[in-house]
Every structure is written in structure tokens, then in C-alpha cells.
Amino acid sequence: MAKLPKAVSQLIESFERLPGIGPRSAQRLVFYLLHNPEERLKEFADRLLALKKETVLCSRCHQISETDPCPICSDPSRDQTKLCVVEEPLDVIALESSGTYDGLYHVLHGVIAPLNNVGPDQLYLHDLAKRLDGVKELVIATNPTMEGEATALYIKEFLEQSSQVDVSKLKITRIGHGLPVGADIEYADGVTLKRAMEGRREI
Questions:
Q1: Where are the domains of the chain?
Q2: d(CA 31, CA 25)
């Protein structure tokens, strides 16, 4: 029985580890790459390496950036009294593209998901309280999924119990209208996100 060359089978295995890529898709990607010129493969490999070498996590908001602090955190024209909590870096990109929000962000890099063994300690949650000095409104913009809703409620309860935060002076709102239940922010269009941001409610 014919076997694939080791280099091919190992790369197929690597692609299979990516989210949404099954064995067939991984095979197609690898054989597509095999038919590319070596220069193009080298360029692809260099860009993969640059993904780690040339990016950093902003120490303030945890957005992926080329600089620390990121351009949003270091922009004095942003409204420092508003802080928006999102699940992933792509959510920041989506909300910025909608042009409806001019405050700062806090990126969690996930949601609380017990079935996947993801708890609050695996997220950038506990430094959130330290960022609320001078903030008047905290916008919780996690996705309207079961995990997103649970994370939003956890954040509210966490802040209410924190000795670092006076919640009586903080308006906590939840992104709402315009996003259907189960939808992801990163896939929503600008009009939908505009309505969701304008329709946020207190929680």
C-alpha cells in the first residue's frame, strides 16, 4: 500500500489541528501548496513566522498589535470614559469598522465554557477591574450565545463583588438589539453592529 511522504503527512496533520479543517480539507490544502513554486511557499512560511515575531498583545486591552500599547489605547481622542468588553480581537475589528463606538476595548480572548474546560482564569478577566478608574460606562459586547451570556453575567457579578470597583458609579450595559441569538460579532455587518451598539441596555 502506497504511503504519503513524511513531509506531506506531517503537514496534513498540522492543518487538521486548525479549527474547521477536516482530513479532506487538510489534504487538499497540502496538495495545493505542493503545486506552488518554492518562492511562494517560502513567502507563506515567512508570513507564518512573522505572525509570532512581529505581533504583540497590548498590555492594556490585550488586542493583537504591532505596538504596545496598541494604536487604540494610545489614541488620546478616544473616549476614555467608555470601555467595551469583547471576546476576540476580530470583534474589535468588526466594531471599529461599524464606526459606532469611540471608546476603549478589553479583549477576553474567549468566553467561559465549562464544557471546554475554559474558566474565568483562562481569560483576561481579572485585570478588568484595574482598568475602570475614570470609566463611566462598561459595554459588555460578548456574543449572544449561551457562553457569551454566561460570561456577561459573570463579569457583572465579579465587578459587584470586587473591592476595586464602585459599581454605583459605573453604568454596565449589554450589547443588544440587532444581533440575533447565537450570532458572532465578527460576522455581523456594519448596520447590524450599529443597531446593536445603539440598542445596548443596562444589566
A1: 6-52, 79-202
A2: 10
CB atoms within 10 A of CB 128: 20
Cβ atoms 49, 57 nearer than 8 A: no
Q: Residue 199: what pLDDT?
A: 67
d(CA 180, CA 199): 13
Q: What angle do CA 112, 62, 125 make, to 5 degrees?
A: 35
Q: 144 or 173: which carries more pLDDT confidence? A: 173
End-to-end CA distance of the chain: 62
196 Cβ partners below 8 Å, 6+ apart?
A: 141, 175, 176, 177, 178, 179, 188
Task: Indicate whether 116 pLDDT > 90.
Answer: no
Three-state secondary-structure class, residue 190 = helix
CATH number of 6-52: 1.10.8.420
* pLDDT 10s digits, 39-81: 999 999 999 999 999 999 999 999 999 999 999 999 999 999 9
Distance CA 92, CA 106 (A): 9
Residue 139 CB coordination number (10 Å): 21
The pTM assigned to this predicted structure is: 0.79
> According to the model, what pLDDT value does residue 167 have?
81
Domain 79-202 has CATH 3.40.1360.10: yes
- For residue 2, what pLDDT band results from cuts at 50, 70 and 90? low
